[in-house]
Design a protein that fits this description.
8 strands; 26% strand; DNA-binding; 3-methyladenine DNA Glycosylase, Chain A; 8-stranded antiparallel sheet; 206 residues; alpha+beta; 17% helix
DNA sequence: TTTACGATCTAT
DNA sequence: TAGATCGTAAAT
């Protein structure tokens, strides 16, 4: 483990619309029984404060979304659809409720551990969705509020690749069909393809 | 206390 | 395309 590679608070203490695309190509890391599970972050979404009517902070601070109002660089983990956990990275200054939803990663380390956590699921479907990702990384309510900027909470994000804006795909956020315009269609989802990632890794092996 | 719904996933 | 499944927050 290389603690110096962990993204610092300053990375997260910026507008969420900068942090969300910058997280593409960074490495999500989880420590389970002293074993590393990791993956390249390849899809994110930005949720930006109480004026964003798709953001959980739209109706103010509640017990559920309180972590989003706290300091940047923390994990906001919420429960949804009666059975799923989703993982976010809190951004911006304390008191401003914004976060990046981590929607998908490409697995790197700990694949045998993921295989146990995702028994019966094809490898290509392990981490290609926000709730699939949390299952594969053993993330649930216990990680809500975890500090992503050090290794002591066994969940963090390490520096990795940086993709220029003209390589990053954008589109509307997923699963917010009842959200009013313009928030329903504003292109605040960001992703890179597996081909783009492997091409970059040929020059900079990970 | 009751109700309606969800930043989803899976099988059909 | 619909069913699973239950915490959350707003409505009653």
């Amino acid at each position: 483990m290389e603690p110096n590679h962990i993204l610092p608070v300053s990375f997260y203490n910026r507008p969420v619309l900068e942090v969300a695309p910058d997280l593409l190509g960074k490495k999500l890391v989880r420590l389970v029984n002293k074993k590393r599970i990791s993956g390249w972050i390849c899809e994110t979404e930005a949720y930006d404060g109480d004026q964003d009517l798709a953001c959980h902070a739209r109706s103010g601070k509640t017990q559920r979304n309180a972590v989003m109002f706290g300091p940047p660089g923390r994990a906001y983990v919420y429960f949804t659809y009666g059975m799923h956990w989703c993982l976010n990275a809190v951004t911006g200054p304390e008191g401003y409720a914004a976060a990046v939803l981590l929607r998908a990663v490409f697995p790197i380390e700990g694949k045998s551990l993921i295989a146990e956590l995702r028994e019966g699921i094809a490898e290509k479907n392990w981490t290609n969705g926000p709730a699939k990702l949390t299952r594969s990384f053993a993330v649930n309510k216990d990680q809500n509020g975890a500090n992503l900027t050090h290794s002591e909470d066994f969940l963090w994000i390490e520096n990795g690749l940086r993709f220029p804006n003209n390589m990053i795909h954008t589109g509307p956020r997923i699963g917010i069909q009842n959200t009013p315009l313009p928030w329903r269609t504003i292109p605040w989802r960001f992703w890179i393809t597996e081909d783009q990632l492997t091409e970059r890794l040929q020059y900079k092996p990970g």
